[in-house]
Design a protein that fits this description.
The complex is a heterodimer of chains A (about 290) and B (about 475).
Chain A (H helix, E strand, L loop, with lengths): L5 H10 L6 H13 L3 E4 L6 H12 L2 E6 L6 H4 L1 E3 L1 H10 L5 H8 L5 E3 L1 H7 L4 E6 L6 H13 L1 E4 L3 E4 L5 E6 L7 H5 L2 E4 L5 H11 L5 H15 L9 H13 L7 H11 L3 H11 L6
Chain B lengths: L1 H13 L6 H13 L5 H12 L6 H11 L6 H11 L5 H5 L10 H13 L3 H15 L11 H11 L1 H13 L6 H34 L1 H8 L14 H23 L11 H8 L20 E7 L5 H15 L5 E6 L3 E3 L10 H11 L11 H12 L7 E6 L12 H9 L2 E6 L13 H5 L4 E4 L3 H10 L12
Parallel strand pairs in B: 1-2, 1-4, 4-5, 5-6
Antiparallel strand pairs in B: 2-3
Classes of the chains: A alpha/beta (about 290), B alpha/beta (about 475).
Chain lengths: ~290, ~475
């Protein structure tokens, strides 16, 4: 997918209802120009994963997703040999000598591809999303380095497999731990923060078409106000969208204290946070 | 362009941001691919390629503003001329900007008001340029960072009055509820914040044209947040550190939970047989039980005396962050006697109210409110010593300045003997230990390890280096 400039990216993403700001558009544009992976960091629910999905939708590529978790290993991220099939091959073939067989069972036929190798081997260009990369241990990060810098995977028995097509790679991180220098060096860095009120309003209007301008503005302002409090978990963009939908379902036309007090639980998920926000924003604290 | 960008990279490195060779090359390659006419494009390109850590963004922004200051395009200058006389220049405003032409202070105020209320960024920029011209009183050649000029301009603009009048302009004659008023106030605060930024940008731009990039960059350079001395951190610094502490405590939690490396647990017979089906019944790949994760017990002892004010605020912050990761964390605070403060950090209690309660409710002062490590430790030992187990890690934070009182370090030997490990974090430079009333070496010899923790970076290094003896072993001293 070739973009002529950042504005082009913004326009393209707008068609799938993803509203990118200058920073996002610029970095995505650079990534496609330089063929480099993008490391997307930011608080939960600001649209990090959504960005990769939107890019897949825009470019018509398949999205291959690797969800990271503690204990993720080579066999689940890269490739694994298909034991059962190898065994069957050995058992079914008694005529050949061992050399031929042993050579044969380590061929591509017996390889089970996992997301990373799949992205490399795909004949069509893909978007590879490595989600929540901060959840794997530091040691496991090393698995990603080869694929990120050279778009290739080395398999000892087979040799090096290079990418057929250049995948577009997004890594997301919630910054629960510091990623290694080696990983960061290979990526473009993109920090996405909560949107400012104008952009949030635009996002709300795009995602919730029934929402009036006036209400969208109010929702965005309340969201900013709540985010400025010291909370356990600030409301994410997806939560403000949920809230806007709730308001429509309740056919609210104007947000006031009582509406806010009654629907705060859509925005905030911890009881202590709800109590605190209710105390700060409304004069009558919720029971 | 090349020399400017390499100069910029040098400045980032001087400010402490680690920029590798590869990243520098990436940046240059990236710059070739973009539209150089756009300042936003250039900024985001350099940011994405050079800065890989959110904590370094402030340093980046400062350096960028200096190295790639906005130069007003010809059209813009014309506009300025149209409205209020000749465009800005250093010499003019140096020698009495008032008379020339333009608006008086009241006129400026009104122009600013309408720009803010109308939320018109271009108009705002023009007014700001004018305001800096007339009010900052900038003198060429003075080696200052611009904060002085900023405050001078802000003072003469009368921000308090501006705030109320913008409020009035935006309210009109509607009746606002308390809730709406709050939202509006926040809106105005963000507008004024933008105004402040504009003024600061304008002042920096002029400083750069007066004294050159390198000189201004050097005046404005500030230590990165991880290098700020904890004993002298400002409130802003502490707030920024708070964000960095989260990942660090998580890492510490993981380190403490780690046991001495045992590769595997006992053989898991059921899973081995299940796995052997894949290899035709041959148990080629034996499976083992996962060793049970270790649940560490951590006790934190914080000196919260006056001399340690800033540092103790930091350690309490650290404690607060830790309490979300350890179910079995107990915290204690001491000045000249010790009290348990674990309950003040219960779930869902925010940091501010916890600190207030500790300073008012915890009984940490016994005689005169000057640090007494000897008495504090002895009290600790008599009251809580019997609850220490070989799984407890004790962390003490403090400068060990004992006001020449007896150190009574013998109790510490006992604490160390019954616990898993005893770690001391001292916020003073190592060179000052044992000078004056510091009794550090008395205590140090009983500790498993002693660390100088003056900055966030050192705390990080401490966490990185942490390898503790396994909980099962009993320590012999």
């Amino acid at each position: 997918m070739d973009f002529t400039g950042p504005n082009d990216v913004t326009e393209a993403l707008r068609t799938v209802d993803y509203l990118a700001d200058d920073r996002i558009a610029q970095v995505v544009f650079l990534a496609s120009r330089l063929s480099k992976p993008v490391l997307v960091e930011g608080p939960a629910g600001v649209g990090k994963t959504e960005l990769a999905k939107a890019m897949a939708a825009v470019s018509g590529r398949k999205l291959i997703r690797l969800q990271c978790y503690e204990g993720l290993d080579e066999a689940k991220a890269l490739y694994e040999w298909n034991y059962k099939k190898q065994l069957l091959r050995i058992q079914s073939d008694v005529d050949h000598d061992w050399d031929t067989i042993s050579h044969d069972i380590f061929s591509e036929e017996f390889l089970l591809t996992r997301p990373l190798l799949e992205a490399i081997r795909s004949t069509e260009p893909v978007v590879l999303l490595i989600d929540e990369v901060d959840r794997v241990e530091v040691e496991t990060e090393a698995l990603l380095l080869e694929i990120l810098s050279d778009f290739q995977v080395s398999i000892p028995e087979l040799g090096t497999m290079s990418a057929n097509t250049q995948p577009m790679v997004f890594l997301t991180s919630n910054n629960t731990r510091e990623l290694s220098e080696a990983l960061k060096r290979r990526c473009l860095f993109l920090h996405i923060d909560y949107p400012d009120t104008e952009r949030e309003q635009a996002i709300l209007n795009a995602r919730v078409p029934d929402l009036s301008q006036h209400l969208a503005g109010q929702v965005a302002k309340v969201a900013r106000s709540i985010r400025s409090l010291d909370l356990k978990k600030s409301p994410s963009v997806s939560e403000t969208i949920d809230w806007a939908r709730t308001l429509i379902a309740l056919s609210v036309e104007d947000v006031d204290e009582s509406v806010l007090g009654d629907t705060l639980h859509v925005l905030l998920k911890y009881q202590t946070d709800i109590e605190k926000a209710a105390k700060e924003l409304t004069s009558s604290p919720q029971a | 362009m090349l020399p400017v960008i390499t100069g910029f990279i040098d400045e980032l490195r001087d400010a402490g941001v680690p920029v590798s060779m590869v990243e520098a090359i990436d940046a240059l390659r990236a710059v070739e691919a973009i539209d150089m006419g756009s300042r936003v494009a250039l900024r985001e390109t350099l940011r994405a390629t050079l800065v890989k850590n959110l904590r370094h963004e402030r340093a980046f922004d400062t350096a960028f503003d200096i190295y790639f200051a906005t130069v007003p395009s010809p059209t813009e200058t014309d506009e300025v001329a149209d409205i209020d006389g000749p465009g800005p220049s250093m010499s003019e405003n140096g020698q009495g900007g008032h008379g020339e032409s333009g608006l008086d202070e009241e006129g400026l105020f009104q122009a600013l008001l309408s720009a803010l209320a109308g939320m018109d960024p271009d108009a705002l920029r023009r007014v700001v340029r004018n305001a800096v011209d007339q009010l900052a009183g900038m003198e060429p050649g003075r080696p200052v960072g611009g904060t002085y000029y900023l405050y001078r301009t802000l003072r003469r603009l009368d921000m308090a009055r501006l705030e109320t009048e913008v409020m009035e302009a935006l309210t009109g004659d509607q009746e606002l509820s308390e809730f709406e008023e709050r939202l509006l106030k926040e809106e105005i605060e963000s507008l004024l914040e933008r105004l402040r930024d504009e003024i600061q940008d304008e002042i920096r731009r002029r400083l750069v044209s007066d004294r050159g990039r390198e000189a201004v960059a050097k005046t404005l350079r500030r230590p990165l947040i991880e290098d700020v001395d904890l004993m002298h951190a400002t409130t802003n610094d502490l707030a920024e550190m708070e964000a960095a502490i989260g990942p660090l405590t998580r890492k510490l939690a993981a380190r403490l939970a780690r046991r001495r490396k045992r590769r595997t647990g006992r053989l898991d017979f059921r899973r081995t047989v299940r796995k052997s089906l894949a290899t035709g019944g041959v148990p080629a790949d034996p499976q083992f039980r996962h060793p049970r994760p270790h649940r560490p017990e951590v006790w934190l002892l914080c000196d919260i005396s006056g001399s340690m004010a800033t540092f103790s605020r930091f350690t309490l912050q650290f404690t607060h962050a830790m309490s979300t990761h350890f179910s079995r964390l107990r915290s204690f605070a001491f000045v000249d006697t010790i009290d348990e403060v674990t309950d003040f950090f219960g779930p869902g209690i925010d940091f501010g109210s916890a600190v207030t309660r500790i300073t008012t409710e915890a009984e940490v002062v016994w005689l005169d409110g000057h640090s007494d490590y000897g008495n504090s430790l002895e009290t600790f030992h008599t009251r809580y010593g019997s609850q220490l187990t070989p799984r407890t890690t004790v962390i003490i934070t403090g400068d060990a300045r004992n006001n020449y009182r007896p150190p009574r370090d013998a109790v510490l030997a006992d604490v160390s003997r019954v616990s898993r490990a005893l770690v001391w974090l001292n916020p003073e430079p190592r060179a000052y230990w044992d000078t004056g009333d510091s009794a550090m070496s008395h205590y140090a010899r009983h500790c498993t390890s002693v660390h100088e923790v003056r900055t966030l970076r050192q705390l990080e290094e401490f966490v990185e280096s942490l390898t503790l003896p396994s909980g099962r072993q009993t320590q012999n001293v």
